[in-house]
Every structure is written in C-alpha cells, then in structure tokens.
Recover the amino acids of this structure.
C-alpha cells in the first residue's frame, strides 16, 4: 500500500513528467517553427527537443508534421510557411 508520503512523491513525479512533455495542442503551435528550422537546415531537434519528443510518440502530430514538411518542400520556397500552415489547418479542420 502507498502511504501519503509516497503518494505525494508520485504526484510530484507525474507533475515533473507532465512538464517535460507537450500536448498535441502545444506541439501543433510549435510545429511551424520546428519545420521552418528543419527547412533552414538548422538543428530543430536540439532547439526544440519537446516537439521532437512528442512527434516520436504521437502518430497524429507526426502525420501533420510530415504533411507540412512535404508541402513546404514541394512549394520550393514560393509560398510562405504561414500560408501553407493556414491551408493545412483548414485541411485538418483545426480551429
Ligand atoms: Zn500529438
């Protein structure tokens, strides 16, 4: 059985874990910046490890990330990230 002290530690541990992980909404908000860095040849994983971490775990966000990356690469820089992002958001029905 857990005593109250152990429960306290457990709650603390869960809170800490939670602080180090992004939810889908947070990931979604950071994703355009993440992809921009990628396309610029910067080390996006190192700069935004929480986004990378979430993408590794979450298939839905990973799909959105790959779709965004593909769309941006296909555009060859003629379209801005924001324009494509707006289109993607509409496509996925977000907000
Ligand atoms: Zn997600």
């Amino acid at each position: 059985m857990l005593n109250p002290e152990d429960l306290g530690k457990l709650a603390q541990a869960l809170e800490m874990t939670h602080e180090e992980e992004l939810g889908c909404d947070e990931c979604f908000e950071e994703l355009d910046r993440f992809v921009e860095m990628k396309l610029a040849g910067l080390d996006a994983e190192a700069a935004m490890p929480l986004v990378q971490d979430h993408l590794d775990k979450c298939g839905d966000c990973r799909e959105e990330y790959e779709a965004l990356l593909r769309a941006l690469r296909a555009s060859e820089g003629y379209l801005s990230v924001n324009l494509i992002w707006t289109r993607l958001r509409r496509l996925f029905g977000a907000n």
User: Anything to note?
Assistant: The helical segments are 4-19, 24-39, 44-47, 49-57, 59-75, 81-92. The two ends are 45 Å apart (CA to CA). Residues 24, 27, 54, 58, 60-61 surround zinc ion (CB under 6 Å). The chain has one domain: 22-92.
